[in-house]
Amino acid sequence: MGGTKALRKAVRDLAGQRALAQRLQVHKARNVCGHLPEHQRAWVQAKLRKAWSEPDHSKALTSLTALASQLEKTHPDAAGSLREGMEETLTLTRLGIDGALARTLRQTNNIESMSGTVRTTQRNVKRWRDGDMRLRWTAAGMREAAAHFNRVKGHRDLPKLQAAIQRELHPTIPTAQADTPKPPDLLPLLTGGQRRSETLIGLSLPAPPTQRLEPTDPAQQRPG
Known about the structure:
It contains twelve helices and no strands. 14% of the residues are buried. Residues 183-216 have low confidence and may be disordered. Among the domains are: 21-95, no CATH class; 155-203, no CATH class. It has helices at 2-15, 25-33, 41-52, 57-72, 76-83, 91-95, 99-105, 109-122, 131-146, 158-169, 175-178, 186-191.
């Protein structure tokens, strides 16, 4: 979990405390069950899976809270592990994202695959000199990994996710406007061509359009 925590911190440092995070449910279940005796892990895992598969966010959160209270009586460490970041295990549920895209974003296989390619690329280095060299080789490894990126499973729901994030961060935006993701050509950007490595970049909020300024120097203005 160390790398995941570091990644979460980096995202929050960059995007602020309002950045949305989806905790890894597999890791959360593993951490909770790590505080339980072997014979009690199966039923706890079953309750976790049932809660996380519930499409209604309120019901799912209620189920997890009840499970934490139940564990508190006999295994307080397991209860504390479940409560830590519990709501973030349901971020996608709260945003209304399900299906293939939800399954993709609940795990880190894509990130770990890229990290593995970076490590493999850096094996060619026999002597490290400075920090800039490490950055260059890391970037080279990421470019190598990008050449083998595939489309995100559930990519057609990415505009839906973008609209949900906009509603979450800007609740005053009218619903009709929030439900229309911008830019309109977001889907082609996220799903193909030479820019597959930019799959998740489109989730950031679009920048305001630039305005063309007219020249103020009379000598630059066209004659009437």
